[in-house]
Amino acid sequence: MYLYSLSPSPPLPLATSVPPGGYDEYSAGSSSRAAGMNGSGPTKLVDPLEDPLPGVGTYEDFNTIDWVREKSKDRDRHREITNKSRESTVALLHSVSDAFSGWLLMLLVGLMAGSALAGGIDIAAHWMTDLKEGVCLIGFWFNHEHCCWTSNETTFQERDRCPQWKSWAELIAGTAQGPFAYIVNYLMYIFWALLFSFLAVTLVRAFAPYACGSGIPEIKTILSGFIIRGYLGKWTLIIKTITLVLAVSSGLSLGKEGPLVHVACCCANILCHLFTKYRKNEAKRREVLSAAAAVGVSVAFGAPIGGVLFSLEEVSYYFPLKTLWRSFFAALVAAFTLRSINPFGNSRLVLFYVEFHAPWHLVELAPFILLGIFGGLWGTLFIKANIAWCRMRKTTRLGHYPVIEVLLVTAVTALLAFPNSYTRMSGAELMSELFNDCSLLDSSQLCGYKQPVNTSETGVDNSLADRPAGPGLCTALWQLALALIFKILITVITFGMKVPSGLFIPSMAVGAIAGRLLGVGMEQLAYYNHDWLLFRGWCSPGADCITPGLYAMVGAAACLGGVTRMTVSLVVIMFELTGGLEYIVPLMAATMTSKWVADAFGREGIYEAHIRLNGYPFLEPKEEFEHSSLAVDVMRPRRGDPALAVLTQDSMTVGEVETLVESTHYSGFPVVISQESQRLVGFVLRRDLLISIDNARKRQDGIVSASLVVFTEHCPAQPPEAPPPLRLRGILDLSPFTVTDHTPMDITVDIFRKLGLRQCLVTHNGLLGIITKKDILKHMAQISNRDPDSILFN
Amino acid sequence: MYLYSLSPSPPLPLATSVPPGGYDEYSAGSSSRAAGMNGSGPTKLVDPLEDPLPGVGTYEDFNTIDWVREKSKDRDRHREITNKSRESTVALLHSVSDAFSGWLLMLLVGLMAGSALAGGIDIAAHWMTDLKEGVCLIGFWFNHEHCCWTSNETTFQERDRCPQWKSWAELIAGTAQGPFAYIVNYLMYIFWALLFSFLAVTLVRAFAPYACGSGIPEIKTILSGFIIRGYLGKWTLIIKTITLVLAVSSGLSLGKEGPLVHVACCCANILCHLFTKYRKNEAKRREVLSAAAAVGVSVAFGAPIGGVLFSLEEVSYYFPLKTLWRSFFAALVAAFTLRSINPFGNSRLVLFYVEFHAPWHLVELAPFILLGIFGGLWGTLFIKANIAWCRMRKTTRLGHYPVIEVLLVTAVTALLAFPNSYTRMSGAELMSELFNDCSLLDSSQLCGYKQPVNTSETGVDNSLADRPAGPGLCTALWQLALALIFKILITVITFGMKVPSGLFIPSMAVGAIAGRLLGVGMEQLAYYNHDWLLFRGWCSPGADCITPGLYAMVGAAACLGGVTRMTVSLVVIMFELTGGLEYIVPLMAATMTSKWVADAFGREGIYEAHIRLNGYPFLEPKEEFEHSSLAVDVMRPRRGDPALAVLTQDSMTVGEVETLVESTHYSGFPVVISQESQRLVGFVLRRDLLISIDNARKRQDGIVSASLVVFTEHCPAQPPEAPPPLRLRGILDLSPFTVTDHTPMDITVDIFRKLGLRQCLVTHNGLLGIITKKDILKHMAQISNRDPDSILFN
User: By C-alpha distance, which of B559, B529, B558 is closest to B545?
Assistant: First the structure.
């Protein structure tokens, strides 16, 4: 004999197939998950396309969504549209347009992110960076390069020197030479840097506090189901775009790649409002945001496939295959839009596209792995130092003066950066210089080799062959070494300030400098020791055997990998930058080493560390839960705690329910048959409950505090003078997730992650307790000896 | 008050933190999921590294694994190793080697699949294909190209004509010209084709019946958790490798790409036996198999990234990020191994690597989309026709004569293919020819354009500019048209025969022919109508505006997309073949169109269609469950069926249990408190139960049919003369998955897919029924009006 708890209800139908017309009861139950009808009779089919009660089924700020409910809502909606489409042509067209709205949205996201934003940001930042050094006389809106193009008086060699472009010293002091001119330029450089950064930080503070930082930790959390209202809003978009340009131009040690992801997500979120399907469904919207993250990286690095893999690997939580395909589409659209805008004037997507010509040798894997170790150590140190600094900012008085902090850091950066040409140039330019393979015509200091004198003797006329370092290169190496130390120190305190700041470019710059230094070192070692066993056979005199640019690239990948712990996406992004399958192996070796070394000191990347620092409720999908605890160890109430706050299905009054809800802060309540039996009927959300009661009190006649709240299908018999009952079966989730008390926590955590739950009831033939995401995170914090109270939200 | 069902047990500890030493009871419960101890006391911690009872926790052939249990088992194992590693240095080393064994395995898989197999298969197939036409006098083991290289008497132009290479007519009849020589060659061609295919089909039938077909449908099913013993075994590997070479060489319309995936998976499966971690855990082994699928595609197309995405998109079921990274590693190793073997002598990974030089114009999107429509229609038609043919083979007498069928098809293929040079050459060579961009020196028939006479008049000396078709090209077009019809018809009956047969190359060939035809058509249209509005501005006389090779490539992608419904992976594979971001947009447009057109006629690709044809239990992760049924509509028992077969926790004897197990065919039984209350305690698997009882009867004293089977911690009081009870709590799963009867089926299906369940219990405050994967598949079949009895396995 089976047990039925809904005492007056008829036996459940155990029919093999769907009885004609006899489905309504269950359909109502299922679609009421979505729409949340108040007082709807059990046989009335609720139309999921209409919200009968505004607010029911939505979420509060700083709360986690229920993925299962959202996806179920979307399926109900889809089913409804499909069913209707058989009825009329208009409905059929509606169904088709609904199916294609996702693609249209992706197209729009790609176009908007690629053109208006990435292109605009690139052009504006380029112009403003040059403004720190001088101004164009033909028109102040031209940047240095453009100014000299327009002038037509320049040769190819001196394309960046032309009479129309005046440095500030020339304009103000009338001279371009001498110490006085240098000081004028220096001061003007600091002035502009301070002005830009002041504007940036004040704009952020005044209009959009969410616009600061890289935004990736928050986007990761949002994609996992958290709600931060306004984080992806129009103000954030506008202010972040403007201040990103200002911050990048101010010369601070930060990049635009991370913030571009945030900006692209803002675009996507705003465009979502054009389509009901995405506006009303938090889960569907997150699919679009995942694609937008791919778009952001795609325009930042000109790497559409790398962008999609970045989104898949690093930021996304729920990434169905359909989203993979759409992300790819959006990323491609964005990349092509950006290329047609051509912000760098070279029909390349990025400033540091590289082409190497010489192959690498197996022996070189040793220095590459060395770079990997350096990258891993740098990643670990950076994360630890940056988190310590950010924690200090959070807890001490330092955090109260963000403007002063930004101005101070800018002043220090500008003061130290100006004298060294490698720190004065922007991060992207620096990398472009470091990745560069020296050709004969190259006038760069890094290519200051001595010309070989004995080419005729050796019979080799390969002018690209390895050559001894000249004085130019030696100076460059010193400057690079200083730049390395400067970048390492300044990046730690820059990341996390109240301006938009990305981490990709500074991290990569550190690695690129280290790599170039090692590369030149290897090159010179090989030049002077051709007869060593190590070099014999592949690096004979006159051979072009070691490419320092490749070392720079490998170093950049290693350092970025150490900080972010990206793997596949990093290698693919780098592969798309070089375009050659050849160099994947060095990149892979360095990235793997870097990740292993960094993981040995702590498994979390910079983004996870910031998520933890901020106490967001984020269940890392990559980490395994290793402890052997059981659900019963984690659930609330604990032993000694007061009993779980539950509602009964048909014996509490509106007043009692209100008192219970008011006296607790839980976001949902299990509904049981009676306080005595504790047999589970369903689960009801606090917000839905409050809205429904509030609405009923206002609109429904006779609902008073003494009215009975009824979650069953049929009302219990009441005395005739009693007020009418308030029927709330519509907002009751009849299929809450349950696990038994003996379920190991590793399985429970897996269920939470994979299904995207926010709570789960623990049963043992009756309700025993509840586990929320916060409980799990607190339990995990406790296991790894961290403060469980650092988890702030649910 | 909470309800406890285990009547004599002490109250459950609701402790906040882990009580020291007080954990054992639960740990035993959790790790006994893994090890399955028989008769272990409740306080004894079971070592998950040792199997106390062989067979417990394993699966029968043609059954689905329990992903949750397997993953939990692996976590227990890992926890054990980690805990031990703190004790001694040896254990620490063991832990480190355990962590790196995954990488080592990947390296081995990459090396083995890349070298021994893919390289060997390429070289052997190349040689044997040439053997059909003639033999090398220097050494019969040289293929045509190699033979003429070695001879050194050949010029670059005539690299494939040299005196050392003799056609069969020259050898047998002494003449290379005339109708007699032609007939001799024709007959020899048919003879070799028949010999090769006869050998292939007899070897498959005699030694490894699983070696036939492409293997991808079965691998998809295996990766989703199904067990087919021997499918990935050593015999399958050996026989499939040999017969694949034979089948490809026989000239049948089939490719080696799909079977290469199968072969790579066999390698991986065999190598798994070297590592305990993978040998003993079905879930971990499937991670390796997913990576192996990526390796297969990586070596087939020289596309490591495309291979990984193929595995992710098309074949894998459970693909954690860790596997993504490892697959990428393995795919790269394989690609580089293959390249160092250099089977094609051009340091390229594939025969049809292409480089285009001319850009494409937006107007050309129209013909590309047209190709997409063609691809979609071809895909639909192919799937329908092939499935109908395969069903006929299954149900009629045709299936009883596989050898005759293969010989007949081979004879027809050889007979029709020989006279047409485009069908005579292998699929890969055909594609290489069709993708080719005509240069001036090209002697191929497809480049038989008339030389422009008026270059001096127009002042343009671009010899690559569009030219009118000459007689050579016209002949080629006729031959291609005939080849298209032939390929379309023969591929339908070839795929599914009892020889290894891939589908990629034949599908792509169909598309490539169609694309090339359309491309040449467009080119000639533009040549004769330069003044049309359509061509004005971008395709003026003398411009190199239309590349027929690109059309062939787009057509190939469209047709492959129509048949397999691949998206991202297809575009990335094609991108890796061309190496240019430019051509992604045409490829994407065609692939998207093709998928949409094909999906309009039926959502399943060829692999899913074959899975369904074979009745495998596969829950398609891409398809949404759209119906609004509830768990109660799907569960067993149905209304009117006999009650669910359940065990009670402490009131059934060994004899009763055996009778119950014997009289049913269920693969597991819920355990309840008593027949009267139906309160759920746990779930026990049939196999574990049988093995444990069998073992106890043999080894344990006093276990007779009258012994009580006890699933509780403490035995109930028994009369003193009663036989000792059989304690089976160790094999009881104390945390079976449950859903309520009101749970919508879309959510239930989602749970099944995401967690990889094989069964789920339906409760309503007590056990109500059970839903298995088979029940869900039957329900889905019923909804879409298919025969529910076509689902054969569970």
Answer: B529
Give the C-alpha distances (Å, rounded to integers) separating A627 from A592, A631, B85, B100, B282.
27, 12, 15, 21, 22
pLDDT at A153: 53
pTM: 0.87
Pairing of strands A759-763, A738-740: parallel
Cα separation, B729 vs B618, whole angstroms: 32
Residue A745 C-alpha, separation from nearest chain B C-alpha, in angstroms:
9
**What kind and span of H or E run contains B238?**
helix B234-249
Cβ burial, residue A701 (10 Å; 0-12/13-18/19+): exposed
Flag whether residue B638 sits within 8 Å of chain A, measured between CB atoms: yes
Which SS3 state, helix, strand or coil, does residue B685 take?
strand
**Residue-by-residue DSSP string for B556-623:** HHHHHHHHH---HHHHHHHHHHH--GGGHHHHHHHHHHHHHHHHHH-S--HHHHHHHHHT-----SSS
For the domain bounded by B102-341, which CATH number is listed? Answer: 1.10.3080.10
Q: Report the C-alpha gap between A23 and A358 in whole angstroms.
A: 70
> Considering only residues 755 to 774 of chain A, which have any Cβ-Cβ distance to chain B shorter than 8 Å?
755, 764-769
Mean pLDDT, residues B380-388: 95
CATH entry 3.40.50.920 includes domain A363-452+462-614: no
**For residue B408, pLDDT beyond 80:** yes
The reply to whether omega before B637 is within 30° of 0 (cis) is: yes
Q: What is the reported pLDDT for B221? A: 93
CB contact under 8 A, A75 and B766: no
Sequence spans of domains, chain A: 24-90, 100-132+177-341, 363-452+462-614, 631-790
Burial track A573-593 (b if 16+ CB lie within 10 A, e otherwise):
bbbbbbeebbbbbbbbbbbbb
Q: What is the mean pLDDT of chain B?
A: 83
Q: Which class in CATH covers the domain with range B631-790?
A: alpha beta
pLDDT at B530 over 90: no
Task: List, as ranges, residues 232-261 from A with C-beta within 8 Å of B.
Answer: none
- pLDDT digits over B56-102, tens only? 778 888 888 888 888 888 888 888 888 888 888 998 898 888 888 99
Structural fold of domain A100-132+177-341: Clc chloride channel (1.10.3080)
Whole-angstrom distance, CA of residue B140 vs CA of residue A778: 72
- B102-341 and B363-371+382-452+461-614 in the same fold: yes
CB-based contact (8 Å) between B80 and chain A?
Answer: no
Structure confidence at residue A344 (pLDDT)? 64
The widest CA-to-CA distance across chain A, in whole angstroms, is: 117
- Buried b or exposed e, range B460-470, using 16+ CB within 10 angstroms: eeeeebbbebe
**A14 near B CB under 8 A:** yes
- Contact state of A764 with B639 under an 8 Å Cβ cutoff: no
Residues of A in contact with B641 (CB under 8 A): 14
Residue in B closest to A672 by C-alpha? B765
CA torsion sign for B360, B361, B365, B371 is negative
pLDDT by residue (tens digit) across A689-698? 988 888 888 8
Q: Is residue B173 classed as helix, strand or coil in its secondary structure?
A: coil
Is B16–A624 a contact, with Cβ atoms under 8 angstroms apart?
no
Residues of B in contact with A639 (CB under 8 A): 13-16
What percent of chain B lies above the pLDDT cut of 70?
Answer: 87
Lowest mean pLDDT segment, chosen from B401-405, B547-551, B619-623? B619-623
Residue B526 has pLDDT above 50, yes or no: yes
Residue A646 has pLDDT above 60, yes or no: yes
Name chain B contacts of A629, Cβ cutoff 8 Å: 18, 26
Assess A639–B contact: CB distance below 8 Å, yes or no: yes
